[in-house]
């Protein structure tokens, strides 16, 4: 049996209708997991779940819409998953928001709170809903998609970077709390990845050429290049790893 095998594991992934979340859902299903697709739009989630079921067999995926800013919506996501599959073995907190670009002094209180709420507090909520069953079973893995923004200063997306640094600290704190019950909590910190999230940058030929020059691998990443790390953290392959962050950035932060 491969250490990466996820046969029978139930995985909830927020923000999985597109981008890194969708690529991760496919890779998790490829390794045998049953996946719960979630984003704000039910129809977009239904379409991804249908694609996964067509490729990996009926019952491989379900779709439950939830806005991460809505606590009741997240509880509904958890409840529907338990109703369909009976349990949650792996939680991937992937969805996030970045509503503001500019100097820190220019961000409104409302925008700042939205970033902190959506990128930290929502992860705290969802983890609090799911962790008790994992701890009771003495088994579980929680993955938070952070960013290399959380490792560096930024004059443009500072609040977002604060939230992503806090995600890494959330993982460290919870790794301490949950470790005795064999529930692991880790982060992934991607560099620039070709998704809608960063479209403004990679669609501009001048900006992307400049950005590529700063990357030792001389290119931005594809969502599929993050998905393998999600499988690693979800599976027994990472069974001795907790509280840490995997950086996948083409070498930018070295
Ligand atoms: N792309 C990059 O360069 C990059 C770099 C570092 C880190 N990241 C991180 O990677 C994660 C995924 O980003 P991505 O690049 O894959 O983005 P993306 O392609 O834009 O996809 C975002 C996903 O999240 C969903 N979503 C957005 N707001 C939501 C909300 N309030 N509640 C629930 N779902 C929501 C979107 O679907 P709906 O619109 O239907 O809700 C979509 O499924 C984020 O945490 C991001 O910070 C990205």
Automatic annotation (TrEMBL):
Organism phylogeny: Bacteria, Pseudomonadati, Pseudomonadota, Alphaproteobacteria, Sphingomonadales
SUPFAM superfamilies per UniProt: NAD(P)-binding Rossmann-fold domains
Domain of life: Bacteria
UniProt record similarity statement: Belongs to the short-chain dehydrogenases/reductases (SDR) family.
The protein's name: Short-chain dehydrogenase
Pfam families named among the record's database cross-references: adh_short_C2
Organism: Sphingomonas psychrolutea
């Amino acid at each position: 049996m491969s250490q990466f095998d996820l046969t029978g594991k139930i995985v909830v992934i927020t923000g999985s209708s597109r981008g890194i979340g969708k690529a991760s859902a496919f890779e998790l299903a490829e390794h045998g997991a049953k996946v719960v697709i979630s984003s704000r739009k039910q129809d977009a989630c239904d379409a991804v779940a249908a694609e996964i079921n067509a490729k990996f067999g009926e019952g491989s995926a379900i779709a439950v819409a939830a806005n991460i800013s809505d606590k009741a919506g997240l509880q509904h996501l958890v409840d529907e998953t338990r109703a369909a599959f009976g349990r949650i073995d792996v939680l991937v907190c992937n969805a996030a928001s970045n509503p503001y670009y500019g100097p820190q002094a220019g961000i409104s209180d409302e925008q700042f709170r939205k970033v902190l709420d959506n990128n930290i507090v929502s992860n705290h909520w969802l983890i609090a809903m799911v962790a008790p069953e994992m701890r009771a079973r003495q088994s579980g893995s929680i993955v938070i998609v952070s960013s290399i923004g959380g490792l560096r200063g930024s004059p443009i997306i500072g609040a977002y970077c604060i939230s992503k640094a806090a995600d890494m600290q959330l993982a460290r704190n919870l790794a301490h709390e949950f470790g005795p019950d064999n529930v692991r909590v880790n982060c992934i910190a991607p560099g620039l990845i070709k998704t809608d999230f960063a479209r403004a940058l990679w669609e501009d030929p001048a900006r992307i050429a400049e950005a590529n020059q700063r990357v030792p691998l001389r290119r931005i990443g594809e969502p599929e290049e993050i998905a393998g790390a999600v499988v690693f953290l979800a599976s027994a392959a990472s069974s001795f790893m907790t509280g840490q962050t995997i950086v996948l950035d083409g070498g930018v932060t070295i």
